Amino acid sequence: MQAKFSHEGRYPFLLQELPAPLREELQTLRDFFAPYTTRIYMVGGSVRDLVRSHLHQESEPIKDLDLEVFGIEPEFFDKLMQKLGAKGVGKSFFVYKYRHNIDIALPRTEKKIAKGHRGFAVALAKEEKEASQRRDFRMNALMLDIFSGKLLDFWGGIEDIAAKRIAIIDEERFKEDSLRVLRGMQFAARFGYKIEPKSCEVMRKMDLSVLSKERIFWEFEKMFTAKHLHFGLYYLLSLNVAKKIFHIAPKKCFFFKTAIEMKKAQKNFHDPLRKFYFLYIFAKNLHKNFFYFLEILQTPREYYKIFKNQKALPKRRTDRFLAAMALRLPIKEYLGNYKQDVTIRAKKFGFWNEKFMPVSAKELMARGYSGKELGETLRRESLKIVKERFACEVTEF
Asked: Which residues of 361-380 are buried (b: 16+ CB within 10 A; e: fewer)?
């Protein structure tokens, strides 16, 4: 039954919705902290996703937790963390890691004092509302008491989740970290949420040049694996992220064509390749080299490995084209396989799981070919057979 949440209601059933291992670890922490404080809250994405699950029956698996501990001074907190066996991962930020999947921290406030994502002055927060104000979006500022199940919502996060909306809490604090623009983009893509207009205005004006390539890629990759790629595409363009990072400003017709293609294509994505399709379709429709985007984002090597044998899927694609592609790689590894006819024909011709090999390298070696000449001859004779064997049957999308 769907719950109706209020700003400070008690919902212990939310804690019961956590995966069993996390529930067990949370009970261990309740028992450990009870003699010292009962003001401990789950914060951030886990609370947001528990509420999303009950309001919309949709959520991502909860794999880790963030806890904030009130009412304990830093020196004693450090001693408790040592006793618990938690390791400090940001002592200047009062953050400790417990059993790899739970972050335990003292509540804090942050104020920008220098450039870079570490250029913040951090102070201890005394009250729950004060601590929650440092969050980026209202939906991420919910706090769930791990003892009572009391849900605190100081900024209207519940209403935002109910309306599938993303909105900034505090404009001035939000502007202190440019990465939040990319977080908004990838949240929209993951959840299918719209960013409210005033927040969009703030985000469009923010400078992204101060962000490291590593931080940029982390947020982009979350978008690449999202369920609503067309939402991510919309905000990539409308928030001026594409212009600032990729130095491109596509026309509206590009957006409509690409958004429709992405929305239709997702149900056909081959799961092992899922995170590569966004860039493939995006670059293809812009008629730009795939590696232009890989180099700007400084993607991991696996991206270069996947894209090195790719070709843009043509509007008029023939059996010959698919057979020629299969000389390079099995079609299950071709990013154009999100089109159903590509998959159907590849399976029909037998080069879905395996490369098409009409000429034997061993036979050519027996005829005296070797080295570079062997490779060139193998390619040339294979293409000749492709042209002879496959008709020019055409499919358009």
From this structure: eeebeeeebeeeeeeebbee
Domain end call among 284, 302, 320 = 302
Query: Each residue of 46-102: pLDDT tens digit?
Result: 999 999 999 998 878 899 999 999 999 999 999 999 999 999 886 566 899 998 899
pTM for the predicted model, two decimal places? 0.90
Average pLDDT over residues 11-23: 93
Full 3-state SS string of the chain: CCCCCCCCCECHHHHHCCCHHHHHHHHHHHHHHCCCCCCEEEECHHHHHHHHHHHHCCCCCCCCEEEEECCCCHHHHHHHHHHHCCEEEEHHHCEEEECCCEEEECCEEEEECCCCCCCEEEEECCCHHHHHCCCCEHHHCCEEECCCCEEECCCCHHHHHHCCEECECCHHHHCCCCHHHHHHHHHHHHHCCEECHHHHHHHHCCCCCCCCHHHHHHHHHHHHCCCCHHHHHHHHHHCCHHHHHHCCCCCHHHHHHHHHHHHHHHHHCCHHHHHHHHHHHHHHHHCCCHHHHHHHHCCCHHHHHHHCCCCCCCCEEEHHHHHHHHHHCCHHHCHHHHCHHHHHHHHHHCCCCCCCCCCCHHHHHHCCCCHHHHHHHHHHHHHHHHHHHCCCCEEEC
Q: Round to whole Å and give the CA distance between 249 and 237.
A: 7
Distance, CA of 106 to CA of 40 (rounded, Å): 9
Q: Which of 261, 277, 302 is the last residue of a domain?
A: 302
Show the domain range for 83: 1-170
Q: What is the pLDDT of residue 395?
A: 63
Residues 154 and 29 in one domain: yes
List pLDDT tens digits, range 165-190.
999 999 999 999 999 999 999 999 99
Same domain for 256 and 123? no
Kindly indicate the confidence band of residue 3, based on its pLDDT and cuts at 50, 70 and 90: low
